[in-house]
Structures are given as C-alpha cells and as structure tokens.
Amino acid sequence: MSDIAVIGFARSPRSEALVEVFDEVLSSAGLGRREIDFWCSGSSDYLAGRAFSFVSAVDAIGAVPPISESHVEMDAAWALYEAYVKILAGEAETALVYGFGKGSAGDLNRVLALQTDPYTVAPLWPDAISLATLQARLMSAELRPSEQNLGTDGASAVVLAAGDRATRNRDRPAWITGIAHRVDPPGLGERDLTTAPSATGAAADAGLTPDVEVAALHTPFAHQQLLLRRALGLGDDVRYLPDTGNAMFSGGLARIGAAAEEIMSGRARTAVAHATSGPLLQQNLVCTLGGTR
Amino acid sequence: MDTLAAPLTIAFDYTRSLGPVLGRFMAGLRDHRVLGSRTADGRVHVPPLEFDPDTLAPLTDLVEVSPTGTVVTWAWVDQPLEGQPLDHPFAWALIRLDGADTPMLHAVDTGTEDKIKIGLRVRIRWSPSPTGHIRDIACFEPGTAPERTGHEIGDAVTIMTTPIRLHYTHTTSVEEDRYLRALAEGRIVGQRCPACCKVYVPPRVCPADGVAPGEVVEVTDKGTVTTFCVVNVPFAGQRLTPPYVVAQVLLDGADIPIPHLILGVPSDQVRMGLRVSAVWRDRADWSTTPENIDHFEPNGEPDAPYESYAEHQ
What we know:
A: Peroxisomal Thiolase, Chain A, domain 1, 10 strands, about 25% strand, B: about 325 residues, 3 domains, about 5% helix
C-alpha cells in the first residue's frame, strides 16, 4: 500500500479565483500543472444556478490536451477521498483536489432545503437556519444559529502525492495516516440529532485517538462544535484550529488543508481534520495526518 | 464599477415515482390517515422507511398512527420563506405522533412564539384539497384529534409532483462584463491568451493553458462557417420554423468560433468555408447582450480555403 501525503494547500474567499488558487497550491507543492496526474473537484449546480457549472471550472485547469478529471456533488473533502483512492489504486501518483461554491448567488437558506429528503421534507422548504435551531434546542445550546454561519463564498485546493514523490519537494509532507467517511440516515427523525454516529464511526475507521495534537473541525453552526468534539472523542487537551467559516463545498477540504499545514510547518506532529456535508452533520469525513510515514 | 448582474429564476416541477411504501403513505395522507412502517426491532417509523436499516429487509408492514402528537423540538420563523407551509409566523417542529417512535418535521401554527413549547400536544390540520402529497398535511395546530378521522385508504399514489423555484443573481466576470458592454456599442471584443496568443471570443480562461485572458482584441463581425447543422426538429420554445441552419462562425481575428444562425440563404446552400457577416438588430434595440446580432448571412466573398479554418474543426 502506498503512503499518501498532503503537500500543498491554498484557499480564497472568492469562488471565482480558481486560476489564482491553482497557481498558489501548485507553487506550494513545488509541482507544475502538467505534473498533476488526477484532478478532482467538489461543487454544486444548485449554488451557482447553472447546469454543469463544474465544467467551466475545468477551463482553469488547462484541460487541453485532455486530463484525467472527476467531480463530486459534495464538499471537496469527498473529492479528496476519491483522489486518495485513485492514488492507492496506483492510477495516479499526484492529484490536485479543489472545491468552490458561490453561496451568495442564490438564497442559500432556501437552496439548502433541497439537500433534504425529496419526498417528505424538501417539499416543505425547511430553511437551513431553522433546521440548525431544532438541533441546537435539543442540545439546550445557548448559541442561536444565525445567518452568518450559513455559508460563504470560497474556493480551496489541496495537492496529494504518493511515497517518494511527496518528499521530493517537501521536507515535511503531511502523511495521511487514516481517512474514512460515513453517512447517517437522511430522515431528520431517524437519528438522535444531538449525536453524530457517522462521525464517531468515521473516526474509529480512520484510527483517530484522543492524544492527537491539533484538530480542524468543520462545523457550519457553533453548537455543532461541542457535539462534534464529543462524537470524535476529543477533549480539552487538543489544540483546535480557529473556525474559518463555512465556505460552501470547499470548507471541509480547507479544514484538511489547515490541519496539513500544521504538520508541514512543523507546528504539530499529529493532526485530525473533519469535514461535513448534508444537513445537520449527516455526512462526516475524518482524516488523520502525521509527520512520519 | 460593479460588473453586470441580472436576476434569474429557475423553476421546475419535479415528478417523483413513489414505491409501494411511500405510495401508501401518501395515499393515507390524502385520506386523512397516517401510516408508519414497523422495523424488525418493533419500532414504528413516521415517515415510513422503505427498508429495515438493521436487517435490510423491505418493509411492507405499515401500521396506522395517530394524527395527534407531541412537539420534541422547535424553531420559530418570524418571516416565512417562499414555499413554506404557512405565510404567517409559525414554528418548525419535530413532532412524534402517538404510536410512532420517530418524530417527523412539519410546521406548527400557534400564532405566537410564546405558545410553542417542547411537550406541546398538536394535531394535524388537513389540507382542504388533498392530492396524495406531504403537503396534504397543511400544518399542525395545538390540540388533539378525535380517535378516528380518516376514510378508507384508496389506491396507492404512484407519482407526486413538487414545484421547485429558486432565485439567483448572476454576476459576470470582469471579462464577460467588458464583452457584453462592447456588444451594447456594436463591437465584438475578445481577449488574447498570454501563453498561446490565441484570441478567445467571448473572452475566457484559456482551456489549454489555464491562465487568465490578457490583451483585449477587437474582432470584426465577419467570419467563416467552420461547420454547421440543419435544424429539422421542432422543439418547445423554438423561435424559427425548421429547417434552418445553426453554424459555428470563426470571426476574422478570433481563434475560436461562436455559434449562430445562418439566414438569408436556403439551408441546402450553406457550406463549410462560406463567408458570412453579422446582421445587427436596430440600434435602438441594442443592450448588453449577444442578441444584438440577429443572425449571420452570406456576404458574397469567395469561400475561405479549408486550410484557413482547418484547425477549428
């Protein structure tokens, strides 16, 4: 099995800034555009209000002559998972993963209703703020969900590389020591909303232990921070990276990038990143990172 | 200066096929009765699950629960959004119906926020015009329902229709903005890729080099048909009567063709290499849109040699 590491990270508060973000992440990884074997993105047409919006983003890659490329309609942390598997399978040595979303193009509070069950929930148009409030009240949380948490514009990118390829340009690659994702049932009444069993399961699958030094958690709403720390079994000894906002479809990937930067800079030896997608922490991904292979 | 922006509303009626479980659930709502599904562990799920999450067996054992239930958690809405069940302030709530083990989401009409609380007993207010849809529950209201209110449940619902309407503001990039403003003055501008020097009309990131467009280049409104198709098939919203020709037109000075109509010539006389010129609409009708060019038509110049556009096939 191949060792795979994060060797570059970049982000921007502008969803349209992909050309700049690619330049920055490639330069941080010490790679040229043509040295990327596989490109994978996360975004959603519902945010942009345009069909196949991810196709125009491919222009920013320079896709002529043809490249190997894929896309997920989830936070780009799941695109990273796809790229990780692609490298594990031996089909690529390097990958650039990116996510972008322009939450401000539409009414995000309504648009997000369309990720709920299409038969019994979405036809009621429950707004995202209200759903978060239902969860916060169950937790007796003082923190009231607000419009500010809903989601912002943004783009981020991460470069992955396998084995010796990772150490060629980086003294301290952030090796992926474990990665897993799970999904809880879509029915809002089908799980205890004060827990996130899929996050707990993903953490166990990824081999997360409570002695991890640094954590970067993706929590669109403030009350979910406490819920998630509990679900992941993390205590007060962990250094939590500051919340950088919920950039739509790139916020989770940016948590992986931020955790990796702690390793690449030498500020930490072990780190964990978490990403979420879907309503009320329904889908969760956990990625553990370390300074040694 | 802000770039051009325009509102856009996207609307579509989603029609969804219902299986044997949700089809009976929706039929129940139509006939004022609520059905849940029972899993192997004995728990009753409302709305019903189609498969048992533990045994993976299909769930066909539907059981009736009460139209009365208890609020588990709630969120007050001061300003209802488009499409929501009520158009005056209301509470979203998870409501566990009597006889069910899982709560369901719906709206509760208490009038004011001080009337909603965890533990409040609420009953279904049925829609006056049921169609076999989750919206047959108009909302919930405080109180308890008589034990038996429904009719015999008729045939399962096979399809439900849900209208989706979303509103956006499309904002142009600096390059798109420049292109559209030039069109409003009757000019066509492209931009040159700083790496490969090709001129893109409209301007865009060069897909070969992945770099932002550079030098602004004005191109002519004359060009060469590189390829075309004859539209023979009628479709909804069609503005011309078939047959007519849609072609790729390589404008002089550009390195990428634009699609447009070729009129003013019988469709069987359109050919690759045909030289054409833009026919602009009346200047009074111009705005920041490519529609300022109504169509292209032959301009009488000799056909362009194949080599001059071979790269654009």
